[in-house]
Each structure stands twice: as C-alpha cells, then as structure tokens.
Amino acid sequence: MRLYEYEGKKIFSNYGIPVPEGEVASSPDEAVEKSIRIGFPVVLKAQVLVGGRGKAGGIKLARTPDESREYAEKIFREGVKGVSVRKILVEKAVNIIQEYYLSLTIDRSNRKYVYLASSEGGVDIEEIAAKKPEAIIRVYIDPLAGLSDYHLRYLTEGLGLSGEHAKQLQTISKALYKIMIDYDADLVEINPLALTDKGIVALDSKITIDDNALYRHKDLEESLSKDPREFTEEEVIAKKHGFSFVSLDGDIGIIGNGAGLTMATLDLVAHFGGNPANFLDIGGGARADRVKAALTLLLKDPRIKVVFLNVYGGITRCDEVARGIIEALNESNIKKPLVVRLVGTNEEEGRRMLESAGIRYFTDDDEAAKYAVELAKQLGG
Ligand code: GDP
Ligand code: MN
Fold this sequence. Notes:
- There is one protein chain.
- By secondary structure, the chain is of the alpha+beta class.
- It is built from 13 helices and 16 strands.
- The chain starts with a helix and ends with a helix.
- The site of manganese (II) ion has 2 residues, from loops.
C-alpha cells in the first residue's frame, strides 16, 4: 500500500522529521481558505500516487488568494498524468538552498536494510543512478544488529554535512528507521530533503507498506478502505478478473498458471535469450473468460511482440484455456504471434480446438520458449 504525501508527512511529523506547515484541501474554496490561514507564498501539491508531479503541473507556487484559486481549480479540473485529484496539500513555501535525496529500503539479496542518500536530490533516484552513480551513498544495516551511530556518521559524511545540519540529518535518518520498523514499510523516501534557511525539511514523502502486514496497522487499513488507492489500468483489469499481473520491461508477453510455473516460464524465456514483458499468473482453475481477459490485456500492450502462454492443466482445463484464447483472438483486431504450450487435463480437446484455429501448439516447454524467443528476435528487427 502506497501512502499519499500528506499521510506520509503526518507520520514524519509524529516522528520528529520537520515538514512545512500544511493542510489538506478538497475543493478550490478550501484551498484558498487554507492558503490564507497558512500565509503566502504557499505551494499547492496534487495528492496523487504518481511521481514527477512537478513537471506534470501538479505542483504550483501561489503568491495570492487569486493565484491559489486559479491553480487549485486547474489541478482539480485537469488531474495529473491522467489521474484525478481529490485532495490538494497546501503548504507554506520554503526557500531551498540545496535538495538531497534520502531513503531507507530493503535490499533483499543482502537481507539488510539500506539507506540510499545523495546530494543530487530533487530528481528520481533512477535518474541519479543512471547519470551519476557515484553520487549515491549506500549504508547497509543488519536488522538483527540494528542501527548504530557509525551508520549515521557514514550518511552525514557521505553527504558532506557537518555541525547542526549533520545533527539534523542524523535525527531524520534515525526517525526513518523507526518508521520503517513500526509501520512494516518496505520503502520510506524523502525526495527532496531540502536544506533551507530554517534547517533541513522533508518536502516530499513516499512510504509503501508491506500489504501482508496491513492487518497490524488498523489506522492504515481504515484510510485504505475510505480512500482506495489508484491502480494502473492493468492492475484494475487484473484485480477484476482475478489474476496476478506485474509489468516488466521486455517484449515477450507471458501467461502461466500458478506463480511457480509462471516464474519458471520467465526464467526459461530469459535462458534462451528473450526478455519477458510481464508476469501474468491466471491462477488455478481459470475459466475461458479469465484467459480471454489476460490475453486481451497482453495483445493491447504495444511493447509486446509475441505472447507465450504456458499452462499445465490440473484443475485448469485445457479446453477452457483454448476457448479463452480463441475468443480473445477473434474479438481483437490486433494480430500478434502466439506460442502455446498446453498440457494436462483435457489436453486433446484443447489441442484440437487450437489447431483448427491455426494456432501453433507445443507440448515441450523448452521448444516453445525457444520458438517464442526466435519470433521476438525476428520481429524486433
Ligand atoms: P514530485 O515531483 O511528485 O516528486 O513532487 P515533490 O514534492 O518532490 O516536488 C517537486 C519539486 O517542487 C521539488 O523538488 C522542489 O523543487 C519543488 N518544491 C516543492 N515544495 C516546495 C517549496 O515549498 N518551495 C520551493 N521553492 N519549491 C518547492
Ligand atoms: Mn519528490
């Protein structure tokens, strides 16, 4: 679960991380009223769960009540990057001297927490990593040993801070650690963490909570039920039809049944030199309509050149899968090569249906994966 900026900042504030004075508004009238109460200049910030709001027009500096009204109306009317805006955070504007990046996350392969910090804040960490990787400081924390003063010193020294500012950064870093543990978070990010004429202040917040731990945080569960988080279009479709979907950055669409087989299919494709475009698990006992929805979703994705469907029929019946495939292909006007490996319950019936629809059919998954990768290469140019 991803928290909104204003929710994250409330937590920051409770844990002693300085944030600008701010209030949440649900209408332009309220935004104006709150701007006046806080005092100009103020910053109006669209509360949406997409990044890069600044560039997309979701963050505006207002100097007068008229400007507050104009910008609030515009933000509520136009939304940000196609996402509608229901709340605006109105904040006292600050004078930024320098923008830092600071986050705490989990490094799963090292089984440690890791702080990432940079004095090149304000832009995405991915962008810093691509353009200036040496500007990122990493400090690993063994969760069993916990946080020590030397970790904090690495951070401040790495960022070139000393004196009062170093002390402030250490207090903030310590608070991030506490938030991470107390909230079962998998990411707590401040970008930018701003050095201002009044000290170091968190200007943005990004907190994601492990969904499996939500039951331990009744307050968050409640705010989630009051205000369901926005999902991507694909996630909405996946939720509605009951399959699991994760987008990746390759060009071969993958459909499998069961998380294990689907993961193994990704590995197989990678093994033969291909790049999976997604993880899509239709789950156990999928009927034709779910298969159809899954395939339709991948056919629509312009990045995908080939779809590889790998199903092992147990409680899932091959004839149901074949029917879903055929319906999706018949109703879609987008043509893409499809590689199907389908074995198990009602295999003969499924095979007959696919072959009479002219779909290439495999029983060996190595052969099928190899063929899918070759096709993608041919189409890739
Ligand atoms: P994001 O683009 O969605 O990550 O939104 P941020 O909250 O990080 O804001 C983007 C940028 O707006 C920041 O990097 C700052 O440069 C600027 N900004 C945000 N709040 C203030 C403020 O109070 N004063 C000034 N001068 N700039 C601000
Ligand atoms: Mn930001």
